[in-house]
């Protein structure tokens, strides 16, 4: 059985993180505060991630909504904007999570919005 470590995307300057962990056959998306505590956790499939990043179609899973707008992925929770992340950085996060090595990247223009 494989063990996948969470990949992390740090949203500067807030210190918030978007964590994505492969939990076969899906992914766990955790939205974390600056203290590292998970604010929200969601299970999404690879097909759902591709729906947002490649098809550029919105995705709603419970309280989570991911929307592709002007080369950014908007992350909303409960109808409130939680973060805006450059599309390529979100795609890198997905790619890293698929490998499960537990890598960490800083968002170039990631803007915390909540």
Features:
disordered C terminus, 10 strands, 5-stranded mixed beta sheet, globular, 47% strand
Task: Please explain how this structure is put together.
By secondary structure, the protein is an alpha+beta fold. It contains 2 helices and 10 strands, in the order E-E-E-E-H-E-E-E-E-H-E-E. The chain has helices spanning 46-53, 87-99; strands at 7-11, 16-23, 26-32, 38-44, 59-61, 64-69, 72-77, 80-86, 104-106, 111-112. The strands form 2 sheets. A 5-stranded mixed beta sheet has the order 4-3-2-1-9.
Set out the fold topology:
Blueprint: E1 7-11, E2 16-23, E3 26-32, E4 38-44, H1 46-53, E5 59-61, E6 64-69, E7 72-77, E8 80-86, H2 87-99, E9 104-106, E10 111-112
Parallel strand pairs: 1-9
Antiparallel strand pairs: 1-2, 2-3, 3-4, 5-6, 6-7, 7-8, 8-10
């Amino acid at each position: 059985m494989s063990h996948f470590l969470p990949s992390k995307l740090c949203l500067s300057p807030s210190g918030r993180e978007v964590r994505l962990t492969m939990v076969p056959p899906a992914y766990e998306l955790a939205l974390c505060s600056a203290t590292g505590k998970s604010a929200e956790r969601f299970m999404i499939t690879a097909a759902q991630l591709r729906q947002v990043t490649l098809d550029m179609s919105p995705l709603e899973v419970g309280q989570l909504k991911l929307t592709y707008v002007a080369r950014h992925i908007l992350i909303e929770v409960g109808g409130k904007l939680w973060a805006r992340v450059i599309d390529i950085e979100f795609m890198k996060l997905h790619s890293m999570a698929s490998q499960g090595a537990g890598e960490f990247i800083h968002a170039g223009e990631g803007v915390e919005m909540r």
